[in-house]
Amino acid sequence: MASPIVSSLQQVFFEQFNVHPRIFRSPGRINLIGEHTDYNDGFVMPAAIDKSVFVAIGKRNDGRIRIWSTDFREMYEGQVSDVCKSGMGWPTYVLGVLDQLQQEGYQPKGFDMALASDLPIGAGLSSSAAVECATVFALDAIFGYALPLDRMIRLAQRAEHSFAGVMCGIMDQFASMYGRAGHFVKLDCRTMEYAYHPFIADDLTLLMLNTNVKHSLASTAYNRRRMECAQGLAWVQEAYPDVQALRDVTLEMLDRQVRHRDATVDMRCRFVVEEIARLHAACADLVNGDMVSLGKRLLATHDGLRDMYEVSCQELDYLVEKVRTYPGVIGARMMGGGFGGCTINIVRTEAVDALVAQLSVDYQKDMNLPLTAFSVKPSDGTSEVLI
Ligand code: GLA
Prior knowledge:
Blueprint: H1 4-17, E1 22-31, E2 43-44, E3 46-59, E4 64-69, E5 74-79, H2 92-103, E6 111-117, H3 127-143, H4 149-164, H5 171-178, E7 183-188, E8 194-198, E9 204-214, H6 218-239, H7 251-257, H8 263-288, H9 291-307, H10 314-324, E10 329-334, E11 340-348, H11 352-367, E12 372-376, E13 378-379, E14 383-385
Parallel strand pairs: 4-6
Antiparallel strand pairs: 1-3, 1-14, 2-7, 3-6, 3-13, 4-5, 7-8, 9-11, 9-12, 10-11
The structure holds alpha-D-galactopyranose.
């Protein structure tokens, strides 16, 4: 039995295009720890989640592209011979992938597509990477390109760079494709080696608290952080030419090469160096089942993102401060690029309902915004949905 979202997507596709589609899904992601480390050749620890973008697709042979968004109830129409950024916004991620495929020499002959999602959009759960991954996976399948997963995620990442203008690392696309049910994945973003680590915590819930804010300058600030890291690296390399990325840098190197030159750049780099070390320690905690220690590291990451990397915002800080001392909360922090989106919270399951009830009232009162709370489960990565 197809899930309700899949059945209704099938039906919508048939209504719009009068043929039966194939359907693919690509999940959103969470990240346990290791923030802003991916583009510094560091490590990350994401998981795909049980909320996804669904793509229904059918081939055409006449060079036309039609894409229906069930969320926006809008149709995009274009030609494969003329792929460019669309003013409509949401088609950007599909078109960016198509453009990248063409740059690699693949020439899809046209397609009809419909998009649906049970993944909240713009909540810091990487809905854009999910659309990109679903698109490349679906086009690969229907046109028979047989691209390996690692090429698909690089292509999806380049689509984000060129069409969305966010110079993101590889974490989101990797997590969406490589996720495995019940596991976090520790990824070495330099070598792309990875290891799955089970999240065995029957009495714990991974609770997302969505601030329902997305600050408009987030992508500009993200790209600026990348440049600050690159500047710090360049200064370190003057004295240590073997260093290739912040991943190879020590705090002593920063003391010697960066601190006296620019306090902001120094702070950014220091956060990254500390965060990579924290991730290794947190991974050991997870393996040892030491959730209390793991939770403290999540809180330390939040402090660093707020004070050193300066990518938090008052709504995220509010939520983390509120839960910090709440009984049953093991750890919490802002998650993802920053400036809005969700906090990730590890909470004893029996404490979840009371916490959400209390916090929803407080958040509405103090921040004048609704709070959206939902739990997620580590899940499998991108796949075809067999209907
Ligand atoms: C965004 C980017 C990722 C990563 C995180 C921060 O989600 O897309 O590549 O840099 O921010 O860890």
